[in-house]
Specification:
A 6-stranded antiparallel beta sheet has the order 1-2-4-5-6-3. By secondary structure, it is α+β, with helices and mostly antiparallel strands. It has 2 helices and 6 strands; from the N terminus they run ββαββαββ. Strand 5 and strand 6 form a beta hairpin.
Length: 129
Amino acid sequence: MQVGVVADEDGLHLVAPLEPNVNDKGTGFGGSLSALATLAGWCACLRILDKHDAGHGVEIVIQRSTIEYALPVTGKMIIVPRAIDGDAQARFVRMLSRKGLGRLAVVVEVRVADEVCVTFQGEYVARKV
């Protein structure tokens, strides 16, 4: 998949070239797009836990997801989690702290240049191990 990680003032996002993630039509392979979006959402959850010093001894898994392929992916992919509301972040961390289990919904976009080609919605569960 040749995924790369970019961290900047806007947060963290992933990048990946089209070539190793191509289908028989010459566009982005759905399985790669889903896996990249799932990974980006997982990273967003981990960053929130780390920001609140709550990521140690925690396992994060995806519970469910949906994905919409609006446009074909025809070039370098930029996989960007949307900003997560501060209240949702606080609730996620608070529930993990209190009950040992926190849930968080994350939306991720797969873009080519400035066009949103894929929208992924994932529900993640963090639990203390």
